[in-house]
Amino acid sequence: MHIVWSAAMTEKMETLGSAAFGFRQIAAEEKQELVNKVFSRVASRYDQMNDLMSGGLHRLWKDDLAAMLNLAAATSVALYEVFNQRRED
Fold it and tell me: Does 67 or 47 have the greater pLDDT score?
């Protein structure tokens, strides 16, 4: 029998003083420290792992996102200038 674990179940367990971490239950106050340790271990290899898992596509996604954000920023500056100019007229 498989049990589907939901966010509500996790929240309830944390309220009761325990938390899900991987495939085990731990004391809720231990969770942040364990998460920090996992992040510290993988942080230096994060881009390598993304390269392996995505076949390098994550670099294209990041480039596309940066381009979209640049376009959005430029558009907002241009609109600000247009509306600001109209207010002065």
Answer: 67
